TrEMBL record:
Stored Pfam families: DA_C (PF22903)
Coiled-coil residue spans: none
GO molecular-function terms, A-Z: isomerase activity
Keywords from the UniProt entry: Signal
Organism of provenance: Byssothecium circinans
Official protein name in the record: Diels-Alderase C-terminal domain-containing protein
Residues in the signal sequence: 1-25
InterPro entries hit by this protein: DA_C
Start and end residues of each Diels-Alderase C-terminal domain: 200-351
């Protein structure tokens, strides 16, 4: 299959924006603080609210923006990190979040190039101009637009990990060029998320599987994570139809034949198809949602590998080598059980931490 591929793990910018002087600024510099730092986590904070005011050796937050074509043949991801364990502090000078009324602007300042994101209401714009990350030139933009409200509250996904699912599954367009290779589509699935933690991934997680899909009128989000802190499995599921929430659960069913309600049955698929380079050779997921009155079933099939942590040109810190991380562009089939089976597209990821160092 011919496909186009992009995964930019670092966004660095030149600070040259006019009109932000009167805005509230949260500025992080490249200086690392010895000892603890303040980490502001409030479940009522919006997805755009910054948690950090300075960096130390472990605390981090990130804003990620993704875009997947409806043809499931292209995907783009840009992550704005405030995380010294994944990006060397010497690569940037300032990582700034400006808040002005209902507009939030992120500006990453460094020698590698320019990157900004802007969140205005339900619209997200990401602009890129990065030089040197991939031994080539990365430029372009993609826009994310949603007809459904931003998710206003942050979620305690697992011990020491907070997730702000700001935009669950909006429409998106992409116009990105990497080393003169264009990744362009005008009809796709996008998303925006905010993650916050006082410790790095190898200290708080053992493994996880995560997927976000749009299938006809349905939007499905599922995340299953095994914590390195309590060694328990933590899950969260959202299912909406035409923007209205149908199903929400944090409980995993015993199996797909369970009579239990308000739970989700999740299992890996091993069919002919695409899989990652690591020990996890699953080709997708089977997900069943058990409501009180209805059930829904979805089959996630990996179509192409968008990114893996073994790709040395993306590794900016040795800690990244401790991950068996794969990210996929997917085709997804399903709907309400007993009704029409619909086709959709999605994005998923899987990861296992090889050499974890739990904090407790």
């Amino acid at each position: 299959m011919n496909f186009q591929r992009l995964s930019c793990l670092l966004a660095l910018v030149s600070l040259s924006v006019v009109g932000l002087e009167d805005c509230k600024a949260n500025i992080i510099t490249s200086n690392i603080t010895n000892g603890s730092v303040e980490l502001s986590i409030n479940p009522l904070n919006s997805f755009t609210t910054a948690a950090l005011t300075s960096l130390n050796a472990t605390a981090w937050e990130s804003w990620s923006f993704t875009s997947v074509s409806n043809a499931s043949n292209a995907g783009a991801t840009v992550i704005f990190y405030r995380d010294p364990t994944l990006i060397p502090p010497s690569l940037y000078e300032y990582l700034t979040i400006y808040k002005c009324d209902n507009i939030t602007t992120g500006l990453w300042t460094g020698d590698l190039g320019n990157a900004t994101f802007e969140v205005k209401g339900q619209d997200v714009k990401v602009q890129l101009d990065m030089r040197s990350i991939l031994n080539g030139e990365v430029t372009g933009s993609f826009n994310i637009q949603s007809s459904t409200p931003l998710v206003s509250s942050a979620i305690d996904m697992s011990p020491y990990l907070t997730w702000g699912p700001g935009i669950l599954a909006p429409n998106t367009t992409s116009n990105v060029t990497i080393a003169d290779r264009a990744i362009q589509f005008h009809d796709g699935l996008g998303a925006a998320d905010h993650l916050i933690a006082p410790y790095n991934w190898i200290s708080i997680a053992e493994k996880w599987w995560w997927t976000r899909s749009v299938i006809g009128p349905y939007t499905l989000v599922y995340w299953e994570l095994v914590s390195a802190i309590d060694h328990q499995t933590h899950t969260i599921t959202y299912l909406s139809q035409d923007g209205a929430m149908l199903f929400h659960s944090r409980t995993k069913c015993a199996d797909s034949n369970t009579v239990q309600t308000d739970c989700v049955a999740f299992q890996l698929s091993y069919l002919a198809g695409t899989y990652g380079s690591y020990d996890d050779k699953s080709t997708g997921y089977e997900i069943q949602l058990h409501g009180k009155e209805k059930r829904w079933s979805f089959e996630v099939r990996h179509e192409l590998v968008e990114y893996e942590s073994k790709d040395s040109q993306f590794v900016l810190s040795p800690i990244a080598l401790d991950y068996e991380y794969s990210r996929f562009v997917d085709e997804v089939y399903g709907g309400e059980m007993g009704c029409e089976v619909r086709r959709g597209v999605g994005r998923s990821e899987q990861n296992r931490v090889r050499n974890g160092s739990p904090v407790l």
